[in-house]
Specification:
Helix content is about 40%, strand content about 15%. Helix 6 links the parallel strand 5 and strand 6. The protein is globular and about 40 Å long. Helix 2 packs parallel to helix 3. The chain is of the alpha/beta class. It has one domain: TIM Barrel, CATH 3.20.20. Strands 1-2-3-4-5-6-7-8 form an 8-stranded parallel barrel, surrounded by 7 helices.
Length: about 230
């Protein structure tokens, strides 16, 4: 698979990011299956961003999955992000990359992908949020709000850090970690205007219904098209 990055995509990507509410992180073979049906359900239920996060499979299988992610994101006018790997993001025509505190650096990601790409970063503390505000990134994630098996050994940061981020963020941020339709309202009440989930959609009996339920958490907080920069 090869890719020549299109010029001038930055403004459209950043507008989609600005108005995004629901972000879904998914592996290349969710629960051992092809990702297409799950992505269709998630995007049909209101997901705005899909991220391919795969740590186990070989490159060829990951690239095959990436082509499905790209196609499905395009079908629903959604963003497609790759986890941790700027080179893979470039190869598979992703809209950007998400890096952790211990992964490829923000500077490396920007150098590989260019100014038009979306670059996001994980944060787990007030200090990391402050640093993210000053970096050349487009968004950051705050979490895990609650402990989650997706990040074993990572201590939960609680809703307090979400509230702190809502007060100081100069960029869009997504609350992440242990969020489900049952507690999503608490996350919104803490100040988040965006959230990111894995299991809440991937493992749901009806992923489209789960995505719709997560979107409804924002109903009392306002329209999804007037999102403030930092929320």
């Amino acid at each position: 698979m090869s890719f020549s990055p299109p010029e001038g995509q930055g403004p459209l990507r950043r507008e989609r990011l600005r108005t995004a509410r629901l972000y879904f992180v998914c592996d290349a073979r969710p629960n051992g299956a092809d990702p297409e049906a799950l992505l269709r359900a998630a995007l049909g239920g209101g997901v705005d961003i899909v991220q391919l996060r795969e740590k186990q499979l070989g490159r060829a299988e990951i690239e095959r999955a990436a082509s499905t992610f790209r196609r499905m994101a395009d079908n629903y006018s959604a963003l497609f992000i790759v986890n941790d790997d700027p080179d893979l993001a470039r190869t598979c025509a992703a809209d950007g990359v998400h890096v952790g505190q211990d992964d490829a650096s923000v500077e490396e990601a920007r150098a590989v992908l260019g100014a038009d790409a979306i670059v996001g970063q994980s944060t787990h503390s007030e200090e990391q949020i402050a640093a993210a505000n000053g970096r050349e990134i487009d968004y950051f994630a705050v979490g895990p709000v609650w402990e989650t098996p997706t990040k074993p050994g990572r201590q939960a940061v609680g809703l307090e850090l979400v509230t702190h981020a809502a007060g100081v963020a100069r960029k869009p941020f997504f609350a992440i970690g242990g969020i489900s339709p049952l507690n999503a309202g608490e996350v919104v009440a803490a100040g988040a205007q965006r959230m990111c989930v894995v299991r809440a959609i991937r493992d749901a009996p009806h992923p489209e219904v789960a995505a719709q339920a997560l979107r409804r958490a924002f109903d009392g907080e306002g329209s999804g098209r007037g999102v403030a920069p930092g929320g």
